[in-house]
């Protein structure tokens, strides 16, 4: 019976043969290198991939005892996160070095999935303080900032002659631009769909009014008057001032970019990434007619930018922690950061580079404006439960903005649900264990 | 005789084994998980047995009850429309006309398109102010100004229901058509002889004799609609807020976004219990109607 099922010439026997061959080659690939093989997982597509390959090549030439292999992971943040969590739950030692989104570090640190870096004595003072804050948990540093992303206010210089002095001034300038002959349809566009981008937009208004999501003691501050004022202001720009179109409530980064790039908006809240492409006359109608700056503040608050960016961290189950740190130190060195700025336009996380003439030559964006934005950047709440906290916030903010709920009620509900989340996850005990 | 039944058991054993492996084992595992606190992202919480704690949390979450309501609403509205339209299409296709074969094949096209692709098509039509939906409605004078469909609960449901009706009506129509073809033509001839009109024939012959086909269709469609996921995931993502979120999306969120295996499993168990209950109800109904016919 078995012979009939899996005879010598049957497709089934070929399958078995094929599978054993694959297994065999897989084993050989692992055994090939004599020195230490480091695995690295991070953005490896397009220009970023080319640059990474180039830098890793150089690293291996300078460190002949190390071989670095790139483990391909999905480029989508959610998918990559999910894969990491599954691997680390299974205590897999690969990849040795992980590229983390800025909001993942505390989660991975609290779970014990990544190593504290303090024993390697990194020069933390060289980096922007906000980026170090975002990578710290329980008084220890768990990731080194690789590059910085920051929320910027794009402004059409031909329609809006000067930088807004404060948020009300921004509304006035936007309305003036809209009412000009041949002026743009929209005063301002931002990310308002129900996703992470909405939280980053909100954080900037919240900071502008002097509010916070969570204070240093881990207390939820969303039901504060400042938060209500911030959310009410955002809603007012949609329904009363009508500078922002209702469409933004379904928009992500790209929809806003299209609107701005086609000349349909006076202001845009976005990250640095579209700057270079929008200055290309072949694809943009606003080339040479816009600039960037920080989001303005309201009375009682300060100008605030949401902090994004990516970090490098070491897998806690690695067998090559020292080698892994050598790779991180290399990739976050000034030379590599300058090259990254030139090749893919990502901002360095080292402060001193912003005084370096080579950076202004390398970056498409005006360096001084970029520095001002990064210095006003605040991390999103540095807590292991950030992703779930953000989900709650996204829903409640969206409910308020589409007018399913009043800002105050929505924020109270968000605060209540986040407090329940804090209870359920034992955050208080975890926070109290946090070093003084 | 006895050895024959033994042989029978031996012969079905592999099939039963496979069913146990791919159906019962995961189900049992999910049940087991649902009784535990198991949060993949928060290993510091441990993996303790918490009895019905997850179920208590589900019952206390208004978002869950909301999602259940949305699912029921979607199921009832879309299936009602599909049944009426499907019956209409089936009656039309049951008539002899030239090119009937081609029409029957063509009508299946929406059904053959993958749901995600279909959902994307519908999203493009409704998404922007300059989308086709707005343009057509403005041209017809139905709308005075373009609306943003996905920021109001009511208008968000429109593309969702339309897309589902567009996609599944053909399936319903074909099932009903199969039922129609089983009806003895002589009944209609006799009714015509007695002077019955078309409406009387529809309500007194066609629909009563189509009951089985309709019930089968209802079972398939209810169970399908109750588990609706991809269509809404792509079209509205459950928004605005969570006002179009179905239970399947709620479960997906808990299980795969937040990686709460215990809680997510509990939600899956609840969904399973509901769909299972619905299936049992329908099958009972079907059984009763079968007996009724035999008498």
Structural class of chain B: mainly alpha
Percent of residues in beta strands of chain A: 5-15%
Overall average pLDDT of chain A: 88
Which term fits the overall shape of chain B? flat
Total separate domains of chain A: 2
Tally of extended strands of chain A? 12
* Mean pLDDT across every amino acid position of chain B: 89
Fraction of residues in β-strands of chain B:
under 5%
Main traits of this protein?
heterodimer; A: 436 residues; alpha/beta; D-Maltodextrin-Binding Protein, domain 2; six-stranded mixed β-sheet; four-stranded mixed β-sheet; 13% strand; B: 295 residues; mainly alpha; MetI-like fold; flat
Q: Could you describe the 3D structure shown?
A:
The complex is a heterodimer of chains A (436) and B (295). In chain A, the strands form three sheets. In chain A, strands 1, 2, 3, 6, 11 and 12 form a six-stranded mixed sheet that branches. Chain A is globular. With 436 residues, chain A is of the alpha/beta class. Helices cover 46% and strands 13% of the residues of chain A. Chain A has helices at 2-5, 11-31, 46-62, 77-89, 105-110, 129-134, 167-179, 196-208, 225-239, 253-261, 275-278, 321-331, 334-344, 357-362, 367-375, 386-401, 407-424, 427-433; strands at 36-41, 66-70, 97-101, 136-137, 140-141, 144-150, 152-156, 186-189, 265-270, 290-293, 305-314, 377-378. In chain A, a hairpin with a 2-residue loop joins strand 4 and strand 5. Chain A starts with a helix and ends with a helix. Chain A has two domains: 34-149 and 308-378, D-Maltodextrin-Binding Protein, domain 2 (3-Layer(aba) Sandwich), CATH 3.40.190.10; 150-306 and 382-433, Periplasmic binding protein-like II (D-Maltodextrin-Binding Protein, domain 2, 3-Layer(aba) Sandwich), CATH 3.40.190.10. Chain B has 295 residues and is mainly alpha-helical. Chain B has one domain (68-294): MetI-like (MetI-like fold, Orthogonal Bundle), CATH 1.10.3720. In chain B, 75% of the residues lie in helices and 0% in strands. Chain B has 14 helices and no strands. Chain B has helices at 2-34, 53-59, 62-94, 100-106, 109-112, 115-127, 132-139, 153-181, 185-193, 198-209, 211-226, 230-235, 247-257, 261-294. In chain B, helix 6 crosses helix 8 (153-181) and helix 13 (247-257) packs antiparallel against helix 14 (261-294). The chains are: A alpha/beta (436), B mainly alpha (295). Chain A binds chain B through residues 78, 82, 85-86, 89, 107, 110-112, 193-195, 245-247, 249-250, 384-385, 387-388, 391, 395-396, 398-399, 402, 404-405, 425-426, 430, and chain B through 39-45, 127-129, 148, 150-153, 237-243, 253, 256-259.
